[in-house]
Fold this sequence. Notes:
Blueprint: H1 2-13, H2 15-63
Helix pairs in contact: 1-2
Amino acid sequence: MVKFLLWCLLLVVCWPLAIVALVLYPLIWLLLLPFRLVGVAVSGVLEMIWALFSLPARLVRKIA
């Protein structure tokens, strides 16, 4: 909602820039999509590695 209100404000202040932003936003979103997917994959792998390293400590804590 905030993005829409800011875009409306930009439309009132400088409409050519608002139209350019409206056209370029989906293109930039598509260009950044692979980086988001890589970020999700790397985050998942790092969480799995952390879980594997912390598993012995959890087991010892549970037994004691």
